[in-house]
Amino acid sequence: MQLVIGGAFSGKRKIVRKMGKSSWLSAYNRDPLSKWDSIWEKDSLLVLEGWETWVAHEIEKNEKLANIRLSIREFLQQMKREEKRRDSEIILIVLEVGRGIVPIEKRDRLLRDLLGWIAQDAVEIADEVHYVWNGLHQKLK
Hints:
Blueprint lengths: L1 E5 L5 H6 L4 E5 L9 H4 L5 E5 L1 H10 L4 H22 L3 E6 L10 H20 L2 E6 L2 E4 L2
Parallel strand pairs: 1-4, 1-5, 2-3, 3-4
Antiparallel strand pairs: 5-6
Function: Catalyzes ATP-dependent phosphorylation of adenosylcobinamide and addition of GMP to adenosylcobinamide phosphate.
Family: Belongs to the CobU/CobP family.
Pathway: Cofactor biosynthesis; adenosylcobalamin biosynthesis; adenosylcobalamin from cob(II)yrinate a,c-diamide: step 5/7; Cofactor biosynthesis; adenosylcobalamin biosynthesis; adenosylcobalamin from cob(II)yrinate a,c-diamide: step 6/7
């Protein structure tokens, strides 16, 4: 499992597209996260992007933040097992939202906090972590 994290329009997709044949599941295309199995083609990487959108939907359901975090952590662990079972790889594209800016709206602050915690969990679970900025990337793990 690889985590590719960076700011908006930093070049994350461009970096990932160079990694090989891939099946994309994107919240930006309104793809539900639960659809991963039907999207993942044989002999291709599975790319999951749009985490902030998927997490925002969970917050809107009035789920407790701790429950959402645990659910996503368990999902990532399940994906890690599936990756090994299929002898393939999963790439998580995550929008970095921290950077010291504190949103005015409470909902947005909750989303920022939860995304930060989820990113930490993803870093722990991933085999490789890449940070992308201005089209450049650096391997952190």
